[in-house]
Every structure is written in structure tokens, then in C-alpha cells.
Amino acid sequence: MKQHLFIFFFLLIGPCGFSQADQPAVKEDFKPSTLNQPGQEYPQVNSQGYARFRIQAVAADSVGVSLGLGGKGGTKLAKTEDGYWMGTTAGPMDEGFHYYNVNIDGGKFNDPGALNFYGSVRWESGIEIPAHDQDFYALKDVPHGSVHQVLFPSESTHTSRRAFVYTPPGYEKDQSVRYPVLYLQHGWGEDETAWTNQGRANLIMDNLIAEGQIKPFLIVMTYGMTNDVKFGRIREFDVKYFQAVLVDELIPYVESNFRTIADQQHRAMAGLSMGGMETRMITMNRPEVFSHYALLSGGTYKPEDIRDKSKVKLVFLSCGSKERPDGVKSAAAALKDAGFNSVSYISEGTAHEFQTWRRSLRELAPLLFRN
């Protein structure tokens, strides 16, 4: 157990910024980020993946921007004559979504020009670096599913808890159809909004369904931090509390209130980062509940970890090429040699970040619930 917790912590603090070495000249084709507040010109991104920030702080002595989960990778801003502070990242950032916050004289603030996203156990500013493959999560003129917010009773935590349920296009029209379900978990410091807000899971699903690449299924997303765990103290996390919420409370609620195929062969569990750690623990503890397992930058399985091979239809392991790809590929190969239906995927050019996990969901979804 301690080994897997260490691996998770290593991945959590892995690289997610930019390199400063041998960078080309910066092109002055900057445009507002697609995640800006309405009408706001900054932050901006250019065609090379550089980001530029402009912050109003007339009386400040120093202003900087911290990029990435937890606020790593600093960009110092310089004061301009009009009292604004401006600066550009030292190099291009990885494609896709990034958290960031603004440091003004030692205080941490959000950028008023950008939309906010829950990460690092707080609402962070967000910036989107255009990706060469962003079409698969783009908003297109295709039939769209719905994302339902539900409150379900939780006796184990003595409260009602929140979940989001994605239902595919046509779910409301044909009342005779029942669907498989993917239970999809966020990472440390995030919540149940992450997979749709940062990950665009609903748009990925809509596009895959429209292209005929997958059979429709439901996705259920809920908050996985059932006991309070501070950053750097991940070994204190005990999965039994979340396992009770997920398996004993949320799944029965979903199966009573949505048209699901309520058996083990039609349930999958996946998670990114710490959500992958939760997925690994719960699927090992309760093999009768899920038949498809997916760890996205969230560790690996060994063949001996899985007690009953006959109950497992798929093991999917993924990460970014800037993480630990050799470990993921070798683990998947060992599972395949042991007779499992095992698949690995490596997101090229990305680290421990949402572009890795968006791509992973795109690769995972067509593999789920095949006959």
C-alpha cells in the first residue's frame, strides 16, 4: 500500500509547466484564452503555446503567476507605466488546460480575467493552451447529452452528497433503453465538477457517440475525499469511507433513479491521479461490483493483485509521456501475459494534467462494455 501511495504522490508533484532551454523567438500572435471571463482580453496565448498575463495592481511591489496544480512554475511580471503588471512564460506550455494563480506581494489571488476551476482544494484560475488534437473535445453541432446534478442520501456520512450524471443523447426520449455505467473519479484537490469543467467529458462522449465510435453509456462523477487529507499527508487517506459512499450508497441510488443495466458486467470504474488510486483499491476490495478498471496517471495493477481474473473484462492503464510511461507499458504487458484484456495508452507530450486525461478518456471509452 505504501508503495502505491508514494507513486501517487510522485505523480502529483510531477512536471506540468514548460521548459526554458533552447526556446524559439516568441511570436506576437497572442489571442485571449478561451477560458477568459466574458469581454476580458487577458490572459492570452499564442500559436507556440506561450501564455501572457496582465494584472492590475497599482500599489504592489511584486506580482507573479504560479502555474500548474499546486501553483508550481513561476512567471514574474513587470510593472508597466499605466500601473499594470505584464509578463510572458519563459517557454511554451503543454497543450490543454492548466490551473494558475496570481501572487501579489506574497498573497495568493485569482486572475479576475479568467474563469475559475476547482483544483488544489480551492478555486483556481484556468487557462487553455490550444491543442493540435482539440477537435475531439470541441463543442460541435451534434446531438448532446445532459449532465444532471443529483443529491443522494449518505447514511455513512450523515448528510446528502452531490453527484453529476452524464446521460447520452436520446436518453430522455426512449424510455425502454437501459445503459451501462462508468463511475469516473477526479484527482486530489478537485471535486465532482472536474471531469466536465476541466476534462470536458460530456463533449468527448457526445462527439464519440456522434461518430459512431462507442455505444452510449452513463458517467457518474462524485466527490471522492470523504475524509480530510492535507497535501503531503496522503498516507492518512483511508479508502473505506469513500468505498462505503460509492458502493453502498451512490450505486444503489443511481440504479434506482436512472435506467441502468444493474450488474457487474455493465459497471466500470476509472479515475485520474488520486481517483486512480481509489479505483485500484476499491476494485481490488470489491471485485463483484465492477468489471472494467481504468487507472489514468493513477498507478498500476500486478497480475497477482486481481484475485478472480474471470470477473475482469478490461484493465486500462494510461499516463502522459512526461510521467512514468515505461512503468505503465510494462505493467499492461505483464497483465496481458497473464491472460488479462489489458491496454495501455501514453499521451504524447503531456504530463500530470488534464490533456493527458482527456485523451485517456477518448481512448478508454470505445473499449468499454463491448459484447
UniProtKB/TrEMBL annotation:
- Which controlled-vocabulary keywords does the entry list? Signal
Q: Does the keyword Transcription regulation apply?
A: no
Q: A Pfam family this protein belongs to?
A: Esterase
- Range of residues in the leader sequence: 1-21
InterPro entries from the UniProt entry:
AB_hydrolase_fold, Esterase-like, Mycobacterial_A85_antigen
Q: Does the keyword Cell division apply?
A: no
Q: Which PANTHER family match?
A: ENTEROCHELIN ESTERASE-RELATED
This chain belongs to which protein, by name?
Esterase
